Amino acid sequence: MARLPITEQRRKLKKLLLLQQTTNNMLVLLFALYYVLICSYLRDNVRHIKTKEEKRVNRMRWMCRLTMDCDSACISQLRMDRATFRILCDMVANIGGLKPTKNTSIEEVVAMFIYTLAHHKKSRTISLLFYRSTETVSRQFHQVLNAILKLYPILLKKPEPITQDCQDEKWKCFQGCLGALDGTLIKVTPPTEDKPCFRTRKGCISTNVLGVCCPNMQFIYVLPGWEGSAHDGRVLRDAISRPHGLRVPRGCYYLVDSGYCNANGFLVPYQGQRYHLKEFDGHRPETPEEYFNMKHSKARNVIERCFGLLKGRWKILASPSFFSIQTQIRIIMACCLMHNLIRKFMSFDPQESLIADEEEESDGGSDNEEVEMTTITPSIARGRGKNKQYWTDEEVEVLVDALIELASDPLWKVDTGFKNGYMIQIHKMVLGKIPSFNKAVIPHIESKIKYLKTKYNPLSEMCMQSGCQWDDVEHKINCEKQWFDEWCLTHPNTAGLRDFKFPYLRKLDIVWGKDRATGLSAEDVVDASMDAN
User: Measured by CB atoms within 10 angstroms of the end CB, which terminus of the chain is less buried, N or C?
Assistant: First the structure.
């Protein structure tokens, strides 16, 4: 075989050398790229580890300042001293079933929860303070809330009656008394469609909370969730009728204000007499009834002070939050339970010392739309029936139609009912259809509207219960006699309504149905704890 020419051999050799050089350059570039990627990865990983370690160190320092440095800092930020905080952590772990996670301790999540309630901070703020994600803060908040609700058997005060050897000047004359109860309004954020029911007479969106406390200002029973438009007496009836509700032992009683009815287990002051301490203004009581009212007011004021401590301690109760309405209701329960924890395990209540010089007698009533008790002066009582007028069926029908027409008119209808002067407008509308109409606005139209509402409210409430429905043919309720008799035991205002014909119920649903307080959001701590399981 003939050899290749020298020029051809050189050309092939150059090609091989060029290919080898190119390959070497590619290998160098690949190695350099790999080296750059490895360095970048290590740098980012080290930076992430360093940042994570810095957050962990800062979190530990923050927790140390909150729960370990001194009692004054712990009380200022978490409303309780270090020993009480540790007791709470042990309780939620051993009784509430709260478990630590790989990255969070029980002490940390409990501190996040308490800090949120004490200062009313949003999840974004808590995530910055505790160096956690907002998802972690939100998830742990609900877990701690459910765990605290399970502590009710230990933290709710067991009622103890006042004995004969009581040395407390306020209480020694009320032997057998268990404490005091009242309602208070706490602002909430309900769903938009429910706001009319939660709106009070003064325009605030609130829930009516029933609180029962002992003389030591510890809560015995709490029922939040009723709409702000509901009357205190209606909330109390619901509390008594619940399976795990308020119970009054035989021979014992609670002190209540004049917004409630005087009944077995509940002692109200004398009507038509001076009652509130500011009404005496340093003067002595002039009659035995006034003396009793003064003693009653001094003792019953414990529930007002208890509410004051509760709202002053937990700032989340001072303004509406943006949790679901169910969570807002359960937050109120948790605040009451931790209020009892502080008063039970701390040697002094720091919040009480802050307001010790601000004890004032409250007006004792919550803003309610319905009125269940009124004091009739002798002059009015003697004149009852003097201007009485009988209404024909046609006149009542036209009156109801006028109410419906005004209810659909935005110029007259508001969330809480009608604007002032609406009865004058109704009078004009009725006169337009019945020229011979001779009833006056006051008292005739006012009295008839009040009568219609006193019949509509209990009938509407019964129709929302299982076992009772409305008969549109007979225009009356349809229920078993046994069911009705049991219902009347806790709702005395429904007596005699089983066979009562009321042809205006469906029409008046348009007028008052949307503004009617239902109590569907109300639940006590036992129900909430069982639901949390």
Answer: N
Mean pLDDT estimate for the chain: 85
Distance CA 320, CA 502 (A): 39
Which residues, at least 6 apart from 236, have a Cβ–Cβ distance to it below 8 Å? 181, 210, 246, 260, 266
Cβ atoms of residues 382 and 243 within 8 Å: no
The pair of three-digit structure tokens given for residue 367, joined into one six-digit string: 């803003």
* CB-CB neighbours of 445 under 10 Å: 21
340 class by beta-carbon count within 10 Å (0-12 exposed, 13-18 middle, 19+ buried) = buried
Report the pLDDT value the prediction gives residue 276, as an integer from 0 to 100.
Answer: 67
Residues 6+ apart with CB under 8 A from 427: 439, 440, 441, 445
Which pLDDT belongs to residue 85?
A: 97
Given a cut of 80, whether residue 358 has pLDDT beyond it is: no
Query: If DSSP codes are grouped into helix, strand and coil, which group holds residue 360?
Result: coil
∠259-262-265 over CA atoms, to 5°?
A: 110
- By CB atoms closer than 10 A (0-12, 13-18, 19+), residue 355 is middle
Sign of CA dihedral 114, 115, 121, 122: negative
- What's the mean pLDDT in 442-452? 87
Length of the chain as a residue count: 533
CB half-sphere exposure, 394, CA atoms < 13 A: 7
Name the packing angle between helices 134-149 and 82-94 (round to 10°). Answer: 80
| Alpha carbon distance 75, 66 (integer Å) | 9
Q: Please say whether the beta carbons of 336 and 219 come within 8 A.
A: yes
What six digits make up the tokens of 508?
A: 């008046």
421 in Cβ contact with 407 (< 8 Å):
no
Write the DSSP string, 478-508.
EE-HHHHHHHHHH-GGGTT-TT---TTHHHH
Is the link from the previous residue into 443 a cis peptide, with omega within 30 of 0?
Answer: yes
- Between CA 336 and CA 309 the distance in angstroms is 10
Q: What would the mean pLDDT of 422-436 be, rounded to a whole number? A: 87
Q: What is the pTM of this model?
A: 0.72
- Whether the pLDDT of residue 2 is over 70: the answer is no
Looking at 141-192, which runs of residues are DSSP E strands?
Answer: 177-187
Per-residue pLDDT, averaged over 155-182, amounts to 94
- Secondary structure percentages of the chain, helix, strand, coil, to 5: 55, 10, 35
What would the 3-class secondary structure string for 52-94 be? HHHHHHHHHHHHHHHHCCCHHHHHHHHCCCHHHHHHHHHHHHH
* pLDDT the model gives residue 372: 37
Lowest mean pLDDT among 133-142, 220-229, 402-411, 522-531: 402-411
